[in-house]
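Instructor's aside before we start: the two examples that follow are unrelated to each other. I chose them only because their records fit on one page, so don't look for a connection. First example below.
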Amino acid sequence: MQFHPGRRSAAVRRALAPGGEVLVGFVGRLAVEKQIDLLTDVSRLPGVRLVVVGDGPAASTLRAAMPAATFLGLRRGADLAELYASFDIFAHTSPYETFGQAVQEAMASGPPVVAPNAGGPVDLVDHGRTGYLVPPFRPDGFTEAVRDLVGNIERRRAFGAAGRAAIEGRSWQAVGDELLGHYEGARGVGGYRRRAVAA
């Protein structure tokens, strides 16, 4: 499996957090709608290193707004998998995601997730068990959730392990089969209603 806690890399961690900082990662397209600027205060937390992975039209604006953050650009494959697994916390800021692939990849890799209580993350993150769901569009929610996890390594480990367990078995095949099952169920219900109306 590509995304797995076993890909955690001491070398990556030494390079990104030479002072032993807690690594908070974001992975995604750097665009205004992703709301990455909500992590500005997170990037200023003492003992925290915010790592932003991705590229896009908002890159230069974000670099200027978060000078303490580390921007790595676009990463793929094993390189990306190592980064996910080497994060201590994963922060996903966009309230507009319908699925949340980055959230799934992070959960499979082991860190707890902080995400908005909106869109796809609601179906993936179990608040208080695998991470935290925070109010969308509010930077203080992300900052407080990250601060809580930074100060509690046991909670980070417990949330990360629970997230990994929750995501196991959620392959594209399994998700596709589940979707087809929903369609079959809806078709059956619809057929029943049509028959009832005809009767």
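Example two begins here.
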Amino acid sequence: MAEPRSSSSPARASVGEVCAWIDAQVSSLRAEDVPLVEAGGRVAAADVAAGFDLPPFDRAAVDGIAVRAEDTVGASPYSPCLLRWVAASDELPVGGAAQLNAGAPLPRGADAVIALHLVGREAGGAAAITEPVAAASGTEPRGCQVATGNTLVAAGRLLRAAELGLLASAGWERVAVVRRPLVRCVIAGAILETARSPSRAQVYEASGPALRAVVERDGGRIVEATAVARDRASLRDALLRPGADIILVVGGTGPGADDEAAAALAEAGELVIDGVALRHADSAGLGRAGGVPVVLLPGSPAACLLAYEVLAGRAIRRLGGRNGALPFPTRTMTMARKVVSEISMAEVRPVRYATAGSVEPVPPITEIGLMALAGADGFLLIPEGSEGYRQGAAVSVYLYEGYDCAQP
């Protein structure tokens, strides 16, 4: 167990060491059964198998006419094949053509569907086919999507619109998912009476809404966001209250005289990591209290968000059954200007698009705070052993909004 850091204690855990501890100590929560309409954004807790073939019968893939493919042999624009229109029924007679909507079952004997715009009408009312069709064209055979007993959705899969639609089409009304992590957010030293201390109240107002957004993005749910006094006893009591799967403490993490978060965690449970080699967020820490993981986040709103992305977000994603890695797409881009970083410290460096395929660093957090993050299109994760990147260097950029935003 770590001792709370003093102002003269330089030891900090590397980002890699912190991530390894999270991966070893934090695993997905138990499963719960929920209605399919409430399962979006959740993670499947077990394989979900098909109870029947999908589709359950041979059916039309397009709006058109059902035919027997052998009836169209030899058809050409000069010698159309003429088929007589018949009402849709259980069986298609030889030489007949029955109009079907996409998704309708094929009548017995039919083995192809011709799209309506490819079918002519003769004066006598016959359907004119000007080229032969192959058996199975324009159709979806029974079980072509999935056969009975095969897996529809594998355990660990994030349930998006397509997965939910697939499960619904297979008759599932409920599904087992990993329980959503319940998160307590404790703001140390925040004062709600803005008139008495506006600057302290702003810490709560900035960090609270910002954390709620990223926690929900990562599949968690904040069940309590509370401001407590900065003293050790108040923080310790907040850490020991039951009802959360993970606790985030914002503020009071540094080596100052009134920074008691680390000491409170040590008394409430176990302080494992006190200080991380992450620039702007080096006072972050981790441990356990009341049987749940605790992440100590810096009080500065910008630093709080940086530490959340690298540390707390990983833990919440793992609790919810997701991949713990950063949840952003990456793209290799070119540095339009050089970026310098402190060696021995990892750094999250916000960047913005410069020209097509290139990025440049935004003004540092120490100068413009949250504006550095709000004005960024993505960020670099610079490792501890790097001094930065030269102009023209190829770098891996984490994009906030995806590949489609990589257009100046």
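Residues 3 and 271 are 7 Å apart (CA to CA).
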